[in-house]
Every structure is written in C-alpha cells, then in structure tokens.
C-alpha cells in the first residue's frame, strides 16, 4: 500500500442559509470585499450579508473583477489600495473573484516595495511569505477555489495563464451557501458546473491521488452527474443547485491536494487564444481523456464507480458521456474554436509542468493530438 498525506486547513460551513455565519467573522475587522459589479449588487441586496458587514470596523470594495482577471488590472487594484489597512479579504463571487481576492491578500500583506504581483507569482518562496486572511463565499458551483491555495491570473498580452500558489493562500474560512447560486444564469451554471465535474475527474486520473481525494472526488462526480442534467431540464431545481454546490466543494478539496491534470493543461491555450470559458475548455477534452483512461487503466474507473453511485466503470463512463452530450459540450466549444488546425498548432503549449504531468498516463504531443482530434 502506497503512503499518502493530506492537508487542508480551511474551516468550512456548508448549507442553505450558512452565510449568516459571516457576521461573527467580520466583527470589528477592517474588511476588503472583492467582487464583480453584479456581485456587489447581489451582496448589498441580501439582508443577511448586509447585516454581516454592519459589524465591521470598516469596509472597502474592489468591485470591478472581470472574467479571467489580468495581471495589469490586478496590479492596478493592488496599487489603488495603498495606504489602506485591511484585516480580512472577503471574496464574493465565482472563481475570478476568488483569484483576485487571493492575489490582493498576498500583496497587501507585504510592504509597498514587495507588492509587485509578477514577482509574487514568479518567486512565491521569496516574496509570498504571508497573506491577509481570506473568507470565501462562492456564488457559483464552481471552481472549488474557496478551499484551495491557488489563484489564476492571466497575462493577456502574452496569452498565458499564470499560477499563484502558496499554503498562505488557503482561505481562513469557506462559507458555501447554495442559495447564493439559485439565480445563476444557465451559461454560468453549466460552465462552472462542468469545471467542478472536471476537477473531480482530474483528481481521479492523477498521480497524486489518495484514498481521501478519491473519496471526495467520487462523491463529487456522482453529485455533478446527477445535478447537471436536472438543471438542464430546470434551472429552478434548488436541490440540484445544492448538489452542484457540494460537488464543487468536494472537488476543490480533492484538487487542493492533487492539483489538476491533463484537461486543465489543455484548456488554458483554448481560453487564452479563443476566449472559450474555462469550464467548457476543460470539458471539451474530458470525454476523450476518460475513454483513454478507461481503455488503459480500467481499474481507476472500477474503483471510482461505486463511490459515484454507479454499478461498474462502464456505467460511469456512459454517465459522463451522456452529460457531455446533453450539454452539447462539443458544439459549444466548436463555436468558439472553429478551426481544429489552429488548436493543433497550440499543442506544444499544452505540455505544462505541474498539470499535464499529473496525469496517470504518459503525456506527449502525439497523445495530446489524438485527444484534440477525438474531442473536436
């Protein structure tokens, strides 16, 4: 039996209405809230959340977060907060809000001369020695970022994804209240839900997996494979929303240990060059990768199937393929990508240390080309 380890220090509150726990965490603290403009409106219109910040010593906002936040924009936000003292950063929103909140938490913990985000990303061991505490309230289900020590910032000029990673970036607390996702539009629901499903599978076909991560991931897969089709039938299905919120949380706990793998590595150039939303970019190769794992390492599917509520590995594979077909993943991705030859030209960029080499099968450009061909 192989040895393994697991560490995740995030205090978690899950359940509809759990956001009421926020008030006790903010009392007498100087709070910075990070959100989109839509997120700020959602926050201020919510009675429980408005009451929570009433007890804070002070409240500042960064409320202009955009999808796939960029290095230059995030650096400007850091500089705009110069001279403001912050005790806790409250991340309210989806993955992009979480990413920016963590980047700000890292930068604001250091003297002005050490707040260069590029340096923090490139040399975390040297510069990222502490961070302002983060409390995460996700409004999507989702990225699982509320329980991971990772943040993604994009260098849009270089069309490159940058990773900020440090144990200091684990949030102090994650409050996962599914009711915050009840009004999420369909496009965002399915994009973020597919990301959660893919993260769970990525934690399974991963060299860093362990009994704990497989347990979390298997349960997340079962919840997502049931919840996504239900929401496709009715976006108002609140029980399905709760399923996806929990799936996202469990998948996040899994990848906080394993990190992601081949689908995520392949997704980044698709987002950078074609503007394909992250969840769809991950999902478009998921079916082909799953079939490859099933053919070469069938025991992986057989071990996960009962955890996800399936009788056998082939049933789990069929369940995944049915969901991808139901959500028209290939068609949605194809509308953004168009030319398959253009994707083939990006294959060298899909070999990413710390991502593609987490995959349980050897990764080379020939295998990536085969996956692209089968996916698009």
Overview of this protein structure:
This protein has 376 residues and is α/β, with parallel strands linked by helices. The chain has 2 domains: 11-178, Rossmann fold (3-Layer(aba) Sandwich); 193-375, Dehydroquinate synthase-like, alpha domain (Up-down Bundle), CATH 1.20.1090. It has helices at 22-26, 37-44, 47-54, 71-80, 95-108, 117-122, 124-127, 186-204, 211-233, 238-258, 262-274, 278-283, 286-296, 298-304, 313-326, 329-337, 340-344, 365-375, and strands at 11-14, 30-34, 58-62, 88-93, 134-138, 150-155, 160-165, 173-176. The strands form 2 sheets. It has a 6-stranded parallel β-sheet with strand order 1-8-5-4-2-3. A two-stranded antiparallel sheet has the order 6-7. A hairpin with a 4-residue loop joins strand 6 (150-155) and strand 7. Helix 14 (298-304) packs across helix 15.
């Amino acid at each position: 039996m192989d040895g393994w380890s697991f560490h995740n220090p995030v205090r978690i509150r899950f359940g509809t209405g759990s956001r009421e726990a926020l008030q006790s965490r903010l009392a007498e603290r100087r709070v910075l809230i990070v959100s989109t403009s839509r997120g700020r409106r959602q926050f201020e219109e919510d009675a429980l959340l408005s009451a929570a910040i009433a007890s804070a010593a002070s409240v500042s906002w960064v409320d202009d977060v955009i999808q796939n936040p960029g290095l230059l924009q995030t650096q400007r936000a850091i500089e705009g907060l110069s001279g403001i003292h912050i005790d806790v950063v409250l991340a309210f929103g989806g993955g992009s809000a979480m990413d920016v909140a963590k980047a700000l938490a890292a930068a604001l913990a250091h003297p002005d001369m050490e707040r260069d985000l590029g340096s923090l990303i490139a040399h975390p061991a040297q510069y990222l020695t502490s961070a302002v505490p983060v409390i995460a309230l996700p409004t999507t289900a989702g990225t699982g970022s509320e329980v991971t020590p990772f943040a993604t910032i994009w260098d849009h000029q270089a069309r490159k994804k940058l990773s900020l990673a440090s144990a200091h970036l684990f949030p102090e607390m994650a409050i996962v209240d599914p009711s915050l996702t009840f009004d999420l539009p369909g496009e965002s629901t399915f994009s973020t839900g597919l990301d959660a499903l893919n993260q769970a599978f990525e934690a399974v076909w991963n060299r860093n997996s362990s009994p704990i991560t497989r347990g979390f991931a298997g349960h997340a897969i079962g919840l997502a494979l049931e919840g996504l089709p239900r929401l496709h039938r009715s976006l108002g299905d609140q029980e399905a929303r709760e399923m996806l919120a929990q799936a996202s949380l469990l998948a996040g706990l899994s990848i906080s240990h394993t990190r992601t793998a081949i689908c995520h590595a392949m997704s980044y150039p698709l987002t950078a060059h074609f503007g394909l939303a992250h969840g769809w970019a991950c999902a478009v190769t998921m079916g082909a990768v799953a079939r490859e794992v099933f053919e070469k390492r069938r025991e992986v599917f057989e071990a996960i199937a009962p955890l996800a509520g399936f009788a056998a590995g082939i049933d789990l594979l069929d369940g995944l393929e049915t969901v991808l077909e139901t959500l028209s993943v290939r068609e949605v991705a194809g509308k953004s990508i168009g030319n398959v030859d253009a994707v083939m030209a990006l294959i060298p960029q899909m070999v990413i240390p710390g991502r593609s080499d987490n995959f349980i099968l050897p990764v080379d450009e020939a295998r990536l080309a085969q996956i692209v061909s089968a996916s698009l």
